[in-house]
Structure formats: structure tokens, C-alpha cells
């Protein structure tokens, strides 16, 4: 089960620098001019989770396999992108393929780094990008409404549902709000997702600050945090330049560097976790002497579907799950201790997997 987050923003805000740090490579060219990223760079990133190391230590696992998220470095959008300005249409298509958006905003002053509009105003930058996505959605909706009308006249129920949802979205967009503002019923959620509107995607605002403000932020990042709070969105403060430097260091050196900067942890760890939470994801574990492994599921996933993340046969032939809560596994020093203490539970098909569960699935082949 893959989850993909697109890194977007205006040119020269630090997107590619952030991507380099995330993937610990220099795969994305970070340069001080617009459109230095033409094709979207894609990188799989391990989700940091100290629990996995603890479990592996207890079970003496030979291999540790973290769960992962995919980040896509999408080239800089500009005003007019919805009409094809810059490389707009291509970039908008790249965004459409992601599950969520990490919107990088320039929250630093630097005369040596140009801004496409000649000023630093992260809130206005965010509004520029949001408007382009909204305009692109409106154009897409109008085309789809024209195409779906014939099926609606023929009494096609699916087409009628699609038309109703498209009109709801258009009404909200014309009022100056993103499509995520539409209140969608449970019955409509699947059809709504199929519309793939850009402004339905959850947003994480990434405040890219300079080195001096990495620990506490600045006036620019505070303005972004207020905007995010008003929207019910999330935000994180990060210094992309620092993170890229840290990503090239050994673990001990990185920890020392963070300490000198007054930072408790790498900003990337906070960014990845925030993205994880934004997508309503959680982790369960499988643990043994061969490997300790983390698996990603959506919150609210039942045991058979969680098993299916490992292999489809596990879901189809699901019988039951042997489950130990993370805290119990640690307190009882492993599976045997948890069994003896009565902390291993046998759960059936209706069990909703909890974050941190250590699981073993039984299934028919």
C-alpha cells in the first residue's frame, strides 16, 4: 500500500533542497532559478519510528524494515499555471497523482535568492498556489459536466451522482473555497474520491526558515501557522538547508549537530510524521528473529484488510490475528512473556487494528 505526497510551491522556495534531504541524495537539482526541476523526482522515505528498533532489540531480529512513504518533488508552480503558464499543465497532472500536498513556503529573507514576485510573503504565496489549483479544478469540472450530461439524460444513476457532486464542488469553488470544504456523505465518499479534484487533497504547510529560526520559527512562519489553523490544516517549521546538511552526516554527528542547533530532532522526522498523520495513517508490526517490520494502514482498518497489506492471500484466507499491544510486548520482554502474562489476544475479522499492534496472522491457503 503506497502513499504519495507531492512537494509543491513557487520556484526557489526550497522544494528540491527539502527533497534532497528527504531522500538523502542529490537527485533533485537545487539551483537558484525557476524550473530547475522539470520531471518530478520520486523518492521512497523510511518513516522514523523508534518503536521498531525496540521491538527488534527484544526479538533479536536480524533485519529491520521500516514502513515507507513516497515523496514527489514537483516543479515550481507560478501564477497562471492553470492556464499553462510556466510548465503548469504538466505540474498539475503530477499533483493529481498524489495523495496529499506538502506545500513549501519561503519563510526567510535572502537577497541572493530570487523570488518570482520580488517579495517574501508566504501567506500570499500559499494563496497563489491554492488559487491556481482551484482554477484548474473549475476548468476540469466544467468539462466533465458537459461530458456527463448525455448519460444523465439517459437516466444513468452513477452519472447523476457524479453530476451532483461536481455541481457541489463547483459551487464551493466559485465561492472562493477549495473543494475540500464540501461536506461529503459516507455514501458519496467513493465517488467523490474518484473525481480526483486537486483542492480535495489534504495540505501540510512546510515553513522553510533560515538556520537561525530553525528552533522557534519567525514572524513569517507564525503567519503561516495562523493561516493553517484557520483552515484546519497542519504546518511544520523546517530549515531545508540544515536538513540537507544533516542528511549527509553519520547518526552520531547528526545528533551532535542538532544539539548544537538547539533542536530535539531532525525537522524531517517531524515532517514525515505530520504527513503520516495528515493521511490518517498508522503502523502495526510483525516481529520475529528473522525480521522486525513496520506496515502502514489507514486508521480504522479491520484485521483482514491489514493482513492484506502483507499479501492478498492473508486477507482472502484470514482466520484470526494474534495481537499484542506494543506497550505489553515491551513490558513483557517479547512474545513468550506476553503469552504467559495473558497479554496476547486472539482477534477476529471485526477487530480494528490499533497503532503499534504487534500481529501474527493465521490464514487458509
Structure characteristics:
single chain, 365 residues, six-stranded mixed sheet, three-stranded mixed sheet, 42% helix, 19% strand, flat
Structure, described:
The protein has a 6-stranded mixed beta sheet with strand order 2-4-1-5-6-7, sandwiched between helices. α1 packs parallel to α8 and α4 (about 120-155) packs antiparallel against α5. The longest helix is centred in the middle third of the chain and has 32 residues, at about 120-155. The relative contact order is 0.14. The protein is built from 14 helices and 12 strands. It has helices spanning about 15-25, 50-60, 90-95, 120-155, 155-175, 190-195, 220-230, 240-245, 250-260, 265-280, 305-310, 310-315, 325-330, 335-340, and strands at about 5-10, 40-45, 65, 70-75, 100-105, 205-210, 235-240, 280-285, 290-300, 320-325, 345, 360-365.
Q: Which blocks of ≥5 consecutive residues have pLDDT under 50?
A: 25-38
| Spatial shape | flat
Radius of gyration using CA atoms only = 23 Å
The level of helicity is 40-55%
Q: What amount of the residues lies in strands?
A: 15-25%
Specify the oligomeric state. Answer: single chain
Number of helices: 14
Helix-strand sequence: EHEHEEHEHHHEHEHHHEEHHEHHEE
Largest sheet: 6 strands, mixed
Classify the secondary structure makeup into a structural class: alpha/beta
User: How many distinct beta strands?
Assistant: 12
Side-by-side strand order of the widest sheet? 2-4-1-5-6-7
Mean pLDDT: 86
Distance between the termini: 22 Å
Amino acid at each position: 500500500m503506497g502513499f504519495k505526497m507531492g512537494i509543491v510551491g513557487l520556484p526557489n522556495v526550497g522544494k528540491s533542497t527539502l527533497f534532497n534531504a528527504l531522500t538523502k541524495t542529490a537527485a533533485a537539482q537545487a539551483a537558484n532559478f525557476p524550473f530547475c526541476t522539470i520531471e518530478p523526482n520520486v523518492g521512497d522515505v523510511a518513516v522514523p519510528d523508534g518503536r521498531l528498533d525496540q521491538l527488534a532489540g527484544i526479538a533479536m531480529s536480524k533485519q529491520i524494515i521500516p514502513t515507507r512513504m513516497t515523496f514527489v518533488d514537483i516543479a515550481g508552480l507560478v501564477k497562471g499555471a492553470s492556464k499553462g503558464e510556466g510548465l503548469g499543465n504538466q505540474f498539475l497532472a503530477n499533483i493529481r497523482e498524489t495523495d496529499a500536498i506538502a506545500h513549501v513556503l519561503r519563510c526567510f529573507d535572502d537577497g541572493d535568492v530570487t523570488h518570482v514576485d520580488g517579495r517574501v510573503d508566504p501567506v500570499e504565496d500559499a494563496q497563489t498556489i491554492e488559487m491556481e489549483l482551484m482554477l484548474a479544478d473549475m476548468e476540469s469540472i466544467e468539462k466533465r459536466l458537459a461530458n456527463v450530461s448525455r448519460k444523465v439524460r439517459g437516466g444513468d444513476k452513477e452519472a447523476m451522482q457524479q453530476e451532483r457532486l461536481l455541481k457541489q464542488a463547483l459551487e464551493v469553488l466559485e465561492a472562493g473555497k477549495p473543494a475540500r470544504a464540501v461536506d461529503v456523505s459516507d455514501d458519496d465518499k467513493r465517488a467523490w474520491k474518484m473525481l480526483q479534484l486537486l483542492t480535495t487533497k489534504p495540505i501540510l504547510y512546510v515553513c522553510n526558515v533560515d538556520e537561525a529560526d530553525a528552533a522557534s520559527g519567525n514572524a513569517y512562519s507564525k503567519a503561516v501557522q495562523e493561516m493553517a489553523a484557520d483552515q484546519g490544516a497542519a504546518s511544520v517549521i523546517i530549515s531545508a538547508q540544515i536538513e540537507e546538511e544533516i542528511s549527509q552526516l553519520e547518526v552520531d554527528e547528526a545528533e551532535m549537530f542538532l544539539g548544537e542547533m538547539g533542536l530535539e530532532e531532525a525537522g524531517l522526522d517531524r515532517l514525515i510524521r505530520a504527513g503520516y498523520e495528515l493521511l490518517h495513517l498508522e503502523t502495526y508490526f510483525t516481529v520475529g528473529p528473522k525480521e522486525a517490520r513496520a506496515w502502514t494502514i489507514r486508521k480504522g482498518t479491520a484485521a483482514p484488510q491489514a493482513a492484506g497489506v502483507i499479501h492478498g492471500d492473508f486477507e482472502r484466507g484470514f482466520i484470526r490475528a494474534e495481537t499484542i499491544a506494543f506497550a505489553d510486548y515491551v513490558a513483557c520482554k517479547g512474545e513468550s512473556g506476553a503469552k504467559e502474562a495473558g497479554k496476547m489476544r486472539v482477534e477476529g475479522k471485526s477487530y480494528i487494528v490499533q497503532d503499534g499492534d504487534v500481529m501474527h496472522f493465521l490464514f487458509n491457503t
